[in-house]
Amino acid sequence: MLRVLVNGADGRMGSQVVQAVHEDKELEVVGGISITHVGEDVGEVAGIGSLGIAIRNDLGAALDEIKPDVVVDFTTPKVIFDNAKTCIAHGVPMVVGTTGLTAAQRDELDELAREKDTSIFIAPNFSIGAVLMMKLSEEVAPYLPDVEIIELHHNNKLDAPSGTAIMTANKIAAARAAAGVKPAPDNTHESLEGARGAKVDGISVHSVRLPGYIAHQQVLFGGYGELLTIRHDSMDRKSFMPGVVLAVKKVTSKKGLTFGLENYL
Ligand code: NAP
Fold first, then answer.
1. CA-CA distance, 146 to 187, in Å (whole number)?
2. What is the residue with the minimal CA distance to atom 40 of ligand 1?
3. Is the shortest distance between the CB of 123 and ligand 1 below 6 Å?
4. What domains are there in the chain, each with its CATH number?
5. What atom of ligand 1 comes closest to residue 163's alpha carbon?
6. pLDDT tens digits for 230-259?
7. pLDDT tens digits for 29-63?
């Protein structure tokens, strides 16, 4: 049995993780952390009935006392860097779904994890369909290098653009560069700043935030007289759980930092 502590255990994602870990025969929930439900039962808060484990609010102290095998973190962009450093300092492998870490921060975490001989896994998107959307986008990019991304999320999402949109743009840009192809120049003059979206590796990314959405993305490729659109929709947060469970089981297979669920598929 792998003993799992969930950081952000009462959140939209964290409570799904508590349930998914509890339902898996090889995993066990041994702790949960949040800010607002301290002292309440982790299972009750996640809506699956009592697990006899009280929610705590201090990650470092919980790691010292509970000594979990793996920490899963779905918290906030503001605290994820510190959370990751805390887990690494304790030598506890970590699976991170929280978005917002920069490439420079990931490099630093990789170095720290190697020094401590431990593992950290980060995925901007744990859904299998989203990983395939990125893979297909990479494959199309050399043939149709003109591309824009529209990502659509619920209005409580704290960051924009989404980690998935950034990762998709990075992969498309790398695929175009490797193939030696370039998009047509964009000569549009923005009469209103931001009208053409944010640029990630030179690719326009448009972020929509509305109640009703969960997590969605369209990658629009344009050609001469034709369009190809790749679209992915997460209709339910459960769509992320098979990926999270897979990552929990595989995280120790590689030391240092691993980025992207495709590494485990
Ligand atoms: P959420 O519902 O707002 O949950 C956030 C959690 O973080 C809550 O448990 C909250 O505790 C906790 N928290 C807030 N401030 C904290 C602090 N200072 N220290 C420790 N914990 C703190 O958010 P969500 O929708 O679950 O999303 C969480 C993260 O996952 C976001 O970054 C989101 O973009 C990302 N995400 C990733 C994927 C993926 O596939 N990788 C999918 C969906 C979402 P309280 O409730 O007690 O404040």
1. 13
2. 125
3. yes
4. 2-122+238-264 (3.40.50.720), 128-234 (3.30.360.10)
5. 34
6. 999 999 999 999 999 999 999 999 999 999
7. 999 999 999 999 999 999 999 999 999 999 999 99
